Amino acid sequence: MSLYAYSLLSILGINIMLAVSLNMISGLCGQFSLGHGAFYGAGAYAAALCATAGYSVPVSLLTGIVVGGVLGFVVGSASVRLRDDFLAVTTIGVSFLFVGFVRKQHWLGAEMGLSKIPASGFGPDGNAIMILIFAAATIAFSLYLNRSWMGFAFRAVADDEQAARTIAIPASTYKLVAFAIGCAIAGLAGGLYTYFTQFIVPDSFGFILSVTLMAMVVIGGTGSTWGVVAAAIILTLLPEAFRFINDYRLLIYGGLLMLVMRFAPGGLAGVVGSLTRRLRRV
Questions:
Q1: Which of 29, 120, 201, 203 could cross-link with 195 by S-S, CB 3.0 to 4.6 Å?
Q2: 83 band by pLDDT with thresholds 50, 70 and 90
Q3: What interhelical angle do 149-159 and 123-147 show, nearest 10?
Q4: Tens digit of pLDDT for each residue in 228-258?
Q5: Are 191 and 39 in contact (CB under 8 A)?
């Protein structure tokens, strides 16, 4: 395989991890977050600093997980009582705050970012395999979570917080847990991205990325792991297959979101489910 193919597989795996982790927050637990890029970036910078200091790949990735999860826990604790548009605005603020903070910190490279990050030592093919393994593990964990008692609690909170509390489900606690788990996985994806590029800049983790990830979740079908995976694959490969539309990517994503919300609120998962039910009736 070519270097381009390995790079594309790496980006695809990272996007799948980010979209599935955001789906745990927004799809399963009903928290509309538009700041996922900030937690991704926090994990990337944490892993980059560890790698530059000479720590091993596992330690650097673990640091990215911890930093992403802790930051998610802090933000989740501050916004756990917020809902819908209030939560969305708060997480947008977190996204801009993160990028603005990094741009002013010279020890984080400021506007120029961090470069000359040590390689993982696995090579392009090894990096791609490592990322795809973590992406597969993220999918498997999401599927397990969906079928577990915790997944039931998440969906109950997403459907109706008051009703969830009446059956002894502490809504605030589960919302916080979902936020922390999703952000920890985003931090891991950030660490993998660091070793993939060996160069990171603040703008890679800005608001545009967060909107793109939310588009993957909505188009795939909120709450559906496989639907979100399919949307992540499509929205990652589409600009690569049609390079001439790359400059209009956000316009296309916005148009797709409008069409999905208008004609297929359940996303790709809802469309597939509807077709399956119709075929069974025939």
A1: 120
A2: low
A3: 70
A4: 999 999 989 887 766 666 677 777 777 777 8
A5: no
